[in-house]
C-alpha cells in the first residue's frame, strides 16, 4: 500500500529591489547638493521635483521594496526646503551688493589760512601802536555785548550744527568735496546762486522764474571709476533743499541749461564729464539752503553747502 504525501506549501517570494526608488533617491541626493551651490541652483530645482515624483511612484509598485522610495521622498522634500533657504540668501546678498553701495566723502584740505590770519594780526599790532590797542579793546567790548544779547535759540542752533555729523543738512560738506562710490566720483565745483539771466539768455524758450523764485546753476564734475568694459552712464542726482526744508529738483522745471551736464553719454574707466545743472528755487534765503548729491542710482544722499 502506497503512502500519499501532500505537496509542500508554496513559499511566497519577498519584495524585490525597487530600481525606481533607488533612482529617485540618487536623483534627490544630487538635487539637494546642487540646490546648495549658488552657481547650480537651477539644476537642483530641476532634479528635486523629478526625484519627488519618482519616489511617489515607486511607493505604489507591487512587490517592490519601499525603503529607497521613502528615503528619496524625504531627501527631495528636505532638499527643496534647504534650496529655498539658499536661494533667498543668495538673492539677499546680491540685492545688498547692488543696492547698498557705500558712499564716501573726501574734503579738500584748507592750508595756510590760520598762518595768514596770524601774520595779519601780528603786523597790525606792530604798526598801530596804542591806537590799535584802544580800538581792539573797544571792539572786544562791543563783541561781548553782542554775545550777551544773543538768544538761547541761536546758541542751541549753533551747537546743534557743530555737533551734527558731517554730510548732514545741519552740517553739510563744503564745495569741492569729492563724493564717491565704487563706480563714481562726484565733485560740486561751485554754485551760481543768481543765474536767472544766464538761463534766460541761453534759450528764448526758457521760462521766467516764478515770483519769489530764481534759477541757480550747480557746476559739477563726474568721473567713472568702475571697470565695466561696456562703460556706464552717470546716474547722478543734484537737488536743492530750502531753509524751510522743501526739496527742489531739476525735473521740476525743464530748461535749456548753459553748459549743461551730460548725463546720457557713456563713460569708460577713468573718463569724466563736467557741466551745469539748473534748479528753480525760492530766492529768499537761497544762500542758506543746501544741496543733496547722490553719486549713483542707489547711493546715499550727501548734503553739500551752496557757498
What can you tell me about this protein's structure?
The N and C termini lie far apart (132 Å). This protein is an alpha+beta fold. It has helices spanning 19-35, 41-58, 67-99, 113-149, 152-163, 196-202; strands spanning 104-106, 178-180, 184-192, 213-224, 237-241, 247-248, 272-282, 290-294, 302-305. Among the domains are: 19-99; 178-305, Immunoglobulin-like, CATH 2.60.40. 40% of the residues lie in helices and 18% in strands. A five-stranded antiparallel beta sheet has the order 1-2-3-4-7, with no helix packed on it. A four-stranded antiparallel beta sheet has the order 6-5-8-9, with no helix packed on it. Mean pLDDT is 81; it is low at 110-130 and 149-153.
Looking at the overall shape, the CATH architecture of the domain at 178-305 is Sandwich
Total number of helical segments?
Answer: 6
- Globular, elongated, flat, extended or rod-shaped: what is the shape? elongated
Order of helices and strands: HHHEHHEEHEEEEEE
> Mean of the pLDDT scores?
81
Task: Classify the secondary structure makeup into a structural class.
Answer: alpha+beta
Amino acid at each position: 500500500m502506497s503512502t500519499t504525501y501532500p505537496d509542500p506549501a508554496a513559499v511566497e517570494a519577498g519584495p524585490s529591489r525597487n530600481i525606481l526608488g533607488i533612482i529617485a533617491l540618487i536623483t534627490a541626493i544630487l538635487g539637494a547638493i546642487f540646490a546648495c551651490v549658488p552657481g547650480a541652483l537651477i539644476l537642483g530645482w530641476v532634479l528635486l521635483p523629478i526625484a519627488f515624483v519618482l519616489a511617489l511612484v515607486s511607493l505604489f509598485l507591487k512587490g517592490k521594496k519601499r525603503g529607497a522610495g521613502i528615503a528619496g521622498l524625504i531627501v527631495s522634500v528636505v532638499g527643496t526646503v534647504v534650496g529655498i533657504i539658499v536661494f533667498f540668501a543668495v538673492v539677499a546678498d546680491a540685492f545688498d551688493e547692488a543696492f547698498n553701495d557705500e558712499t564716501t566723502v573726501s574734503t579738500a584740505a584748507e592750508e595756510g589760512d590760520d598762518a595768514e590770519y596770524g601774520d595779519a594780526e601780528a603786523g597790525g599790532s606792530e604798526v598801530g601802536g596804542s591806537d590799535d590797542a584802544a580800538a581792539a579793546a573797544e571792539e572786544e567790548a562791543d563783541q561781548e555785548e553782542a554775545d550777551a544779547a544773543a538768544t538761547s535759540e541761536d546758541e542751541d542752533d549753533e551747537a546743534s550744527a557743530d555737533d551734527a555729523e558731517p554730510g548732514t543738512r545741519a552740517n553739510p560738506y563744503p564745495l569741492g568735496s569729492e563724493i564717491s562710490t565704487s563706480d563714481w566720483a562726484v565733485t560740486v565745483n561751485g554754485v551760481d546762486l543768481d543765474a536767472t539771466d544766464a538761463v534766460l539768455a541761453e534759450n528764448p524758450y526758457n521760462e521766467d522764474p516764478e515770483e519769489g523764485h530764481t534759477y541757480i546753476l550747480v557746476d559739477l564734475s563726474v568721473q567713472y571709476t568702475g571697470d565695466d568694459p561696456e562703460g556706464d552712464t552717470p546716474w547722478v542726482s543734484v537737488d536743492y533743499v530750502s531753509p524751510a526744508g522743501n526739496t527742489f529738483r531739476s525735473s521740476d522745471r525743464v530748461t535749456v541749461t548753459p553748459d549743461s551736464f551730460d548725463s546720457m553719454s557713456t563713460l569708460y574707466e577713468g573718463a569724466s564729464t563736467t557741466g551745469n545743472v539748473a534748479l528753480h528755487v525760492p530766492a529768499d534765503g537761497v544762500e542758506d539752503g543746501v544741496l543733496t548729491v547722490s553719486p549713483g542710482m542707489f547711493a546715499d544722499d550727501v548734503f553739500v553747502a551752496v557757498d
